[in-house]
Design brief:
By secondary structure, the protein is an alpha+beta fold. It is built from three helices and eight strands, in the order βαβββββαββα.
Length: about 140
């Protein structure tokens, strides 16, 4: 089946958590993320630094392009979970966290520039991953 040249995937949800709690969830390093296959994020999560997510070799690797805590995080997104996706070009992952009340926010994810199997996997998995994060945050008093 042919793949689109480039795909943009957008997911957005309202959360009963303040932006700071959401930021902690997406930037916490060296701890398993129960809502994302127990993957571990490694790296300082500061602009111009590299990160990896997953096992020791990283299932996803990239560079932090911009970080404006607790509202916006932009990173390159280079999938490495198998040989096929490792040969596809990197895309970009952007998180936006918008306060909507004292203890509420809207969380948005934008993945762009993905192609092939990486784009297909991201389109399939993104809603479930971040719905899981929402449940985890809200079930655990915002982490």
């Amino acid at each position: 089946m042919p793949h689109a040249a480039s795909t943009e995937i957008i997911y957005s949800t309202a959360l009963s958590c303040p932006p700071e709690a959401v930021w902690r969830a997406i930037t916490a390093t060296n701890v398993p993320r129960s809502w994302m296959w127990n993957s571990v994020l490694r790296g300082p999560m500061e602009p111009d630094t590299d990160y990896s997510m997953g096992g020791d070799d990283g299932l996803i690797v990239g560079t932090v392009l911009d970080a404006d805590a607790p509202y916006r995080l932009v990173m390159t997104f280079d999938a490495r979970w198998d040989e096929q996706v490792a040969g596809e070009p990197a895309g970009e992952l952007e998180y936006l966290i918008t306060p909507t009340g004292e203890h509420e926010s809207v969380f948005s994810v934008r993945l762009s520039g993905l192609t092939g199997v990486t784009a297909d996997a991201a389109a399939q998995d993104t809603p479930d991953i971040y719905a899981g994060m929402k449940s985890w945050l809200e079930d655990n008093d915002c982490g």
